[in-house]
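Quick one before lunch.
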Amino acid sequence: MTDYIDLQPVKHVQGAVRLPGSKSISNRILLLSALSQGQVAIVDLLASDDTAVMLAALRSLGVQWTEEKTATGTIHHVTGVAGVLPNKSADLFMGNAGTAIRPLTAALAVIGGDYTLHGVPRMHERPIGDLVDALNAAGTNVEYTGNPGFPPLHIKQGKIITERLSVRGDVSSQFLTALLMVAPLMAKDHAITIDVIGELISKPYIEITLNLIRRFGVKVEQTGWESFTIQPGKVYQSPGTIHVEGDASSASYFLAAGAIAGGPVRVEGVGKDSIQGDVRFAAALEQMGAQITMGDNWIEARSSGPLKAIDADFNHIPDAAMTIAIAALYADGPSTLRNIASWRVKETDRIAAMATELRKVGAVVEEGADYIKVTPPAALTPATIDTYDDHRMAMCFSLTSLDGALRKGATVRINDPKCVNKTFPEYFNAFAKIAK
Ligand SMILES: O=C(O)C1=C[C@@H](OP(=O)(O)O)[C@@H](O)[C@H](O)C1
Ligand SMILES: C=C(OP(=O)(O)O)C(=O)O
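Model of the phosphoenolpyruvate complex:
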C-alpha cells in the first residue's frame, strides 16, 4: 500500500525555517576530511540518506569518525587518513546519492584496492561512464558489473600514468568535481591538468568544489571552464573546524511559498555570502515579481501581487529550477524553463515526471529534450501526486496546496512522502510550521 500525506489548501504562509545542512557541501567535506591529514570537526552536517551512505562508506573503508550532539546541533569528528585507506577491500552501498558515488569512485579508483559500489535501482540507470572513461584513460582499473556506463562498479588496483586527463562536462558536473577532488592524490610528483570536453553544465557546483578544496589547503588554477591544474606535492590539510551552510536547494520551497502565498517566509542558514549557486533561485523569484531580502545568514521572500511568468535558462540551478516550474502554476502566463536536459538523468526523468504531475493539477505542459513550458490552469485541480522516489518532486508539489494572489491551491495528496529523506527528512514538519 502506498504511503501518502494529504495537504489541505493553505491560505497564507509566514515564519522562519532553520535549514538542514547543504547536501553538496556535506558530502564534499566528508570526503575531503577523510582524505586529509589531521582531525576535522564538521559542524551542522546534513543528516539524511545521502550523507548516511557517505558516512557508512567511509566507516567501511576504515575511516574513523564520531558524532557529538551539542546544545545547538551536531559536530562530526573525522580522522583523516592522508590518502591511505585502512581497508583495501569493501562493498559499498551508495543509495541514490550522486554526490557520494561519483567522488568516491574517483577516490577509490586512484587509490586502488578491491572495491564494489552499487545503489538503488535508479542509481544503476544514472550515468557514470564519462567519469570512468576519464579515470581508466589515466590508468585506473574500473569495471562495470552490470550495464556499461552505469553502476554497479568493481574497482581494482590501477596506476595513474598520465599528467593530463579529460572529462566530458555536459552530462553531469559531478564527474569534474570527482576528478578535481582526487587530483591531489594523482599529483604526487607532477602537476595534473583536467580538461573539460563539451560545454560544462551546472557550473556553480564546480565553484563549491573549488572553494572547499582551497579550504583544505590545495590550490587549483583555472582557465575558464575548460581546464584546471593542480600543482604537485600537496596533501589536503585539515581546516580544523568547518561549518556546513544550510541547503540552498532546500531553501527554494520555503522562498517560493513566501512568493506565492504572502509571507514573509525567512530561511536561516544561507545568505548573501553563500558558496551555493542555488541561492540564485532568489533572483529568479525576484524576476517573477517576488520581494526578496537577504542578510549574511538568511533570505526572506514575500509576495507583492501576482507572480509574473518567466522564460529563462536554468542550467546554473538545475535542482532549484524544479521549484520555479511549480511557481509557474501561480504566474500570469506561460513560463519556459530552458537548458535543463540534466533533469532527465537525476533521481527520475524529472522533465517527464514534472510534466505528468503538473498536468494532473491542470497545467498545460509542453516538454522537449531540454526544456519544459508550463501554462497555468484557471484553477488548480485536486490531485494525487506520484513522486517517483524523487525528494524534489515531493517537496515541490507540496506547494500546490498554496493559495496564490491569482489562483487558489488545491487539496493535494503526495504519495510516498518519505522520499524526502534523501536530503530533508523533516521537510513536511517544516512546511506545516509556515502554513497558517
Ligand atoms: O555537485 C553537486 O553537489 C551537485 C551537482 C548537480 O548535479 P549535475 O552536475 O549532475 O547537474 C546537482 O543537480 C546535484 O543535486 C548536486
Ligand atoms: C540531483 C540530485 O541529487 P544527486 O546528488 O544524487 O545528483 C538532487 O538532489 O536533486
